[in-house]
Design goal:
With 92 residues, this protein is of the alpha+beta class. It is built from 3 helices and 6 strands; from the N terminus they run βαβαββββα. Strands 1-2-6-3 form a 4-stranded antiparallel beta sheet. Strands 4-5 form a two-stranded antiparallel sheet. The chain is elongated, with a radius of gyration of 15 Å. The two termini are 17 Å apart. 13% of the residues are buried.
């Protein structure tokens, strides 16, 4: 994708959101909403209505070496204008 948008998040919960026109991506932690909006509109040729972002906090993770930490990461909830779709989530 790009340095701003890392990957789409595809889970059961995000599939339910995509039916309502909201798509979820993991994004760079330093990315602003306007930068995310520009990248999504440029890359997927869609019109973005609004963006909400959230920081996923650190969690403990078991490894062979003991308990480790997963770093902070940022996700963006992107609402598209009516009638717009992103094909990554549609399975095309």
């Amino acid at each position: 994708m790009s340095q701003i948008i890392k990957r789409p998040l595809v889970t059961e919960k995000t599939n339910l959101l995509s039916e309502r026109g909201i798509y979820v991506f993991q994004v760079n932690r330093s990315a602003s909403k306007t930068l995310i909006k520009d990248q999504v509109e440029k890359h997927f040729q869609v019109k973005v209505e609004s963006i909400k972002t959230s920081i996923a906090r650190k969690k403990g993770k078991r490894t062979r070496m003991g308990v480790g930490r997963v770093k902070y990461w940022k996700k963006a909830f992107i609402r598209l204008k009516a009638g717009e779709k992103i094909s990554v989530f549609e399975g095309n």
